[in-house]
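Let us work through a complete example step by step.
Step 1: write down the sequence.
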Amino acid sequence: MAYSSAYKRFLASVPTAQREYRTIEIFHPQFSGMLRFVQDKELVEFKLEATAPRGSRTIASFFPLSMEIKEPGETDQLDSALLVRLGAVGGEVFSELNRINGSGFFTPIEVIYRKYYSGSLDNPMIVMYLSAKNIVFEGYSTIMFNAEDLDLSNTQAGEFYLLSRFPQLANV
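Step 2: predict the structure and record it as tokens.
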């Protein structure tokens, strides 16, 4: 993924006056609308990318939510998978999930991860189009899930063939 030179400088210098915003958009055709959240304490508005499936190039509101997002580079994952934990979600998210019924169970829940950088809010620096997998409810107010690449060819096969585990590979 190509980053702008301004964002590369931001990553290298870690300035205190600028920051990154991690956002999640969750959508399913049976939801009453989209759920958009930001890992922050205040409502923020950002411009969506030109390739956004809904509302491209428009300004969208992201609601603050206690959430933890781990990108593939921050975990041991080698594929395009995010680990997402949404805390203090209340009844809104649960009521939307309860709307899924019938054939809707076969339609994936779309997740769009966007990371914005405060030095350049015109477009997100990172955009990942994913689908929710392995949804786990922790009590009434916390939801955890993996968000994986919608393209099955980009997902991990599940087995690492390392010489330490398979020494016979050295002879191949």
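Step 3: interpret the result. The two ends are 34 Å apart (CA to CA).
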